[in-house]
Specification:
Layout: H1 18-24, E1 40-45, E2 48-55, E3 60-65, E4 69-70, E5 77-78, H2 79-91, H3 95-104, H4 112-146, E6 153-159, E7 168-175, E8 181-188, H5 198-202
Antiparallel strand pairs: 1-2, 2-3, 4-5, 6-7, 7-8
Helix pairs in contact: 2-4
Length: 203
Amino acid sequence: MEEDEQGKESSRYSLVETHCLLELIERCKGCGERLDSSLIRVSSLGSAKIVTYDCLPCNKTVRWESQSRVGKGKGQVYKGNHDIPLASFITGTPLPRLCDFAKLIDLSLPSDRAMRRVIREVGAESINRVYANSEARVRKIAVDAAGGKGLEVSIDGQYDTPGYNAANCKVTAIDCNTKLALGAATLHKKEHGIGENWAPRFQ
């Protein structure tokens, strides 16, 4: 297969085979002495490569990391391990398919648990902010359209199962004039405030 030889500006991440990486670490970056290959160790932490080697002339162990870290304190992670799950989340790529792809070409990725944690802590919070801002804009549009006469609101509820077996309920408030959804809320039967005798109150 003929490859595109046209040069492009350097991207943030690149795929590097491990044996090619070792070719770049033949000498100690401190003293410049040639390293004993048996003293060079390569490991992976998610998508990040970590190279450690023992330099006898320097009498110390040197560590090199392929990525910078983001976050604070104990919550710091390698940037690729942070960006990969968020890219999957934003593009709608299912994590199982992403993991299948990585396994096929023997590409190191963060664990499924670690990626889901990033999505939960970062992606979900971003969605909440976007939703809150959008909700505020919609409500302002409805209030302006009412011209000080007040809002006529229709409230509609939906349940995940019929009858009193419902575990989840979604309620949406709609402005009758503009037909815009002013807000929505989802409740589970075990949430605080529903109570032990939740079914009648739920419905």
